[in-house]
Task: structure prediction
Amino acid sequence: MAGHAGEAEAVAVRLQAVSKRFRLFRGRQVTTVKDLFVRGGRGGLFSGEELWALRDVTLEVPRGRMVGIIGSNGSGKSTLLKLIGGILKPTAGRVEVDGRVSALIELGAGFHPEFTGRENIFVSGILLGLSRGEIRERFDEIVRFAGLEGFIDNPVKTYSSGMYMRLGFAIAVTVDPEILLIDEVLAVGDEAFQHKCVGKIQEFKARGKTICFVSHDLGTVERLSDEAVWLDRGILRAQGRTREVIDRYLAHVAEEEARTLGVAHRQAEAQAAAGTAQRWGSREVEITGVRLVDGAGQERYLYDTGESCTIAITYQAHRPVDDPVFGIGIFRRDGVCCYGTNTAVEGLALPKLDGEGEVSVSLERLDLVEGEYLLDVAVHARDGQPYDYHSRLYPFAIRSRVKDAGVARLPHRWRLGK
Amino acid sequence: MTAHLAELYRYRVLIATLVVRELRARYRGSLLGFLWSFLNPLLLMGVYVLVFSVYLRVPLEGYAVFLFSGLLPWLWFSSSLGHAVGVIVGSGALVKRVFFPAEILPLVSVLSNLANFLLSLPLLIVFLLAFGIRLTPALAFLPLLLLLQLVLTAGLALPLSALNVHLRDVEQILGNLLILLFFLSPILYPVSTVPAWLQPLYFLNPLAGLIQGYQNVFFFGAPPHWLHLGVVALFALGAFVGGYWVFDRLRDSLAEEV
Result:
């Protein structure tokens, strides 16, 4: 912990029961006098819909701390930064900020396309609170950091988006704020520039600046921040040690994803029952249900790489059928077949089918890389005549901490030898 | 109010920088560049002179210069409002992402048009002299007229720019009101053509007293009409205080609604 014993830690940003409401307007953003007359009165402009971007958020950021703000899209992360930056005012609650703030919310927001990089540096710098002298002093540093030595006297409309962003970032960090707010800017620019940005941020950190940043890249959040804040639909769900907050967030995301996949599966089943172009065959044997079951016997459609999974197929034979063949196939969303097999190619002879029953295949390890997959299940005669073919109907997903590439995660081990 | 003005004073460098940028941006990329700030009013004047002096034969010696001395301040007024009304909507990116007092934007519209007006004054002087009109000590009242017009225009530009964020009709309504106001002000015709019984009503339009003031100091070589100017001053002050109040009430919603 920073700070001296017995002395309360200085707080750079304090939010007390902060809520922010946005009012939504009927149909379109732009309102005209006509609407006003048609609906009459002051309330007429307002559709009655409200969006609470933040609800009752209480938060303290100690001086010198770097806080990563995570959460899914629309969870209020940017609104939180704008409230701290003073750009938005809270609907309720108090926002207290102690120190000069620089917000990297949109880089190059004040640039005028017709003007040269040089002219824009001056206007933007002044907009961000620098004096002319300070800008003149740091001018060369800005240009060097942005890597725009040869272009600084060209109009910025001739810049590539990367150059534009680099110049914006270079100006914003030159302000030398006590509190730096960063919204997703690390996601832009090429690799080299991202490294430069991260370097600059670490330099700020080392100099004891307070930093609040929003990012979808959990790896970056984990690497850079001292603590994390997780917002979910405007509610502060967790604040504390980065690792713990990220774990809770990921668990929540997985839960949501699993729920969505469960719904998708039931939809696929309903679709199969109602009839679809993705299902064909004579139906002499009918597949009546498909389930994915994990090692503990729980039905589940989201798996971690390497988990075991059983595909259970229930069927009904409307007449006795000799020598049936059951098959499965796993496809990537882009149509690549990851794995396919059936009882015939594996030399299994199944007994005669009659009435209802279940066939299952246990996959000991689902060693697929992270992504979404579709499952094929089929029952057909040995000569290939389909009884019931469900093609790419059932979705499931694999998630993995390891962002490896390809189709399958082949079992492997690294060894360092001499 | 005073707190706001003090804050604006702290942002004076930004205001100055934006005014300069505005002036330079206006003609960037055009061949004749800055010459347009002379050419535009000159062409306009040419058209009016053709219609009112040649076709309709308004009996006024030196009609062209008379017209010009009222047209220039009118253009400052109307271009300021025309520009200011859309300036916050147009600078959405800035308002939403950078923390600064948003009233700077409409004020920059008014100030950059003031600068344009001042830069075209030498042309007016050359015209006056060319038409054999002597400059008189009444010109000393010019700064007073400028101040009144500045306060009045700013007082209107502030609420218009903020209201237009919520109600985009404001821009359209303003366009029509400005045309109306143009003909209700003594620009194309001297005040003397307005019937005497109508004049008390006529000068309730603050632009009328103001334009008359300019014509007096430039063209007629007389001081402004003090009673009419008093009306202007009242209007200017009222507009500024009221306009700032309206702007202030809408301030917090601007970043959301833009």
